[in-house]
Design goal:
Layout (H helix, E strand, L loop, with lengths): L12 E4 L7 H7 L5 E4 L5 H11 L3 E5 L8 H14 L3 E6 L1 H14 L3 E5 L10 E6 L2 E6 L7 E4 L9 H19 L6 H23 L4 H20 L4 H13 L3 H16 L8 H6 L4 H11 L16 H8 L12 H13 L5
Parallel strand pairs: 1-8, 2-3, 2-4, 4-5, 5-8
Antiparallel strand pairs: 6-7
Helix pairs in contact: 5-6, 5-7, 5-9, 6-7, 8-9, 9-11, 9-13, 12-13
The protein binds nicotinamide-adenine-dinucleotide.
Length: 352
């Protein structure tokens, strides 16, 4: 049955395909940017410098100090570099950390953004910015944060290491799984979510076998785009709340935490959201939690929170924190049940 719904579309121009990086200069001109500051992490500095050379007169230089969790001090330093370089726009080349820096600058000065994602995290198609000040991470949503143009060149993901490719793609899949049962879900995002999960399911075994498989990389980036769009359009629930808590309070790595928790949180909600999750059951052998767990295991993904260095003694505090200011969730979140879920995820036990 189709329920009443409201659907807000986030406007963005998407350019997709192997070697579309060659279109970056043309896209900057279309966007009205005369000089773009190219952003990257220190690790991707060389890639950013190559892109800056490719852009020629359209480049205002490189700022390669993007940092995980978007610390406000880094943003302030980058704002100075932006002003000194005479830039009138941004190019972010990288994963969620670099894209976060571009969004943080745009939030402050409304700079137009061309984003070139090299992971599957999905931040490029959301109007949401998470930033950290004095160790506290807060999120803000605003129209100026949403990048105007996204250029998806799967060629750029070939260098993403195998394990990170898998966890990053499972991170993307988590956006779509939660999008399916979101309280404000709608038929369009649900189509995108199911297709995004399918595309990732089909592509990931190929990437696990050979990270240089361009066809599999292309399928994965297509899926990641759809899943990111779902994240940017509808509300998230227990899974994202739990990952946010574990990432923020215990400093666990973002993509790995998502990858490990997804089978457990999806399994927790499987009964309460059976109809919404039926595409997931259909794609993973009839069982939502167990099927997602078996899929992750088949890819060699991390399966247990203890592998990330979380101690068993932290689980009580994690459960307490995760039930504070709860997100809406299709199944009520009780502290004791959540503590059990965390215990299973910590050990890496297959969900029922
Ligand atoms: P990341 O951007 O932190 O990248 C991790 C490392 O991998 C970095 O050193 C990066 O330079 C490197 N890397 C990236 N692409 C590479 C490639 N193709 N080849 C080799 N190395 C590469 O990781 P991420 O998972 O993409 O982003 C995580 C961050 O994004 C978190 O802070 C998360 O909160 C944020 N995020 C925000 C949103 C949002 O909507 N606001 C959505 C998803 C994620």
């Amino acid at each position: 049955m189709i329920h009443p719904f409201t659907y807000n579309i986030n406007p963005a121009r998407i350019v997709f395909g192997p070697r579309c990086l060659a279109q970056a200069a043309e896209e900057l001109r279309l966007l009205g940017i005369n000089k773009a500051l190219v952003l990257a992490t220190p690790f991707q500095r060389e890639d950013a410098e190559r892109l800056s050379e490719q852009l020629g007169d359209l480049s205002a230089g490189v700022y390669a100090n993007a940092t995980m969790h978007t610390p406000v001090e880094v943003t302030e330093d980058a704002m100075k570099a932006y002003a000194e370089s005479g830039a009138d726009g941004l190019v972010a080349l990288g994963g969620g950390s670099t894209i976060g820096l571009g969004k943080a600058i745009a939030y402050r000065n409304d700079a137009p953004q061309l984003v070139i994602p090299t992971t599957y995290a999905g931040s490029e198609v959301t109007p949401v910015l998470g930033q950290t000040e004095h160790g506290v991470k807060t999120t803000v949503s605003h129209g100026s944060i949403l990048p105007e143009v996204v250029l998806y060149d799967p060629q750029l993901t070939l260098s993403l290491p195998r394990e990170m490719s898998i966890t990053s793609a499972l991170n993307a899949m988590a956006h779509a799984v939660e999008g399916l049962y979101a309280r404000n879900s709608n038929p369009i995002t649900s189509l995108m979510a199911a297709e995004g999960i399918r595309a990732l399911r089909d592509a990931l075994p190929g990437i696990a076998a050979n990270p240089a498989d361009l066809e599999a990389r292309t399928g994965a980036q297509y899926g990641a785009w759809l899943c990111g769009t779902v994240l940017g359009t509808v509300g998230m629930a227990l899974h994202h709340k739990l990952c946010h808590t574990l990432g923020g309070s215990f400093n666990l790595p973002h993509a790995d935490t998502h990858a490990i928790l997804l089978p457990h949180t999806a399994g927790y909600n499987a009964g309460a959201a059976a109809e919404a999750l039926s595409p997931v059951a259909g794609l993973f052998g009839g069982s939502v939690g167990g099927g997602l767990y078996d899929f992750a295991a088949s890819l060699g993904a991390p399966l247990a929170l203890r592998e990330l260095g979380l101690s068993e003694a932290d689980l009580d505090r994690a459960a307490d924190l995760a039930v504070q200011n709860p997100y809406w969730n299709p199944r009520p979140v009780e502290r004791d049940e959540l503590r059990e879920l965390l215990q299973r995820a910590w050990k890496g036990v297959r969900p029922e």
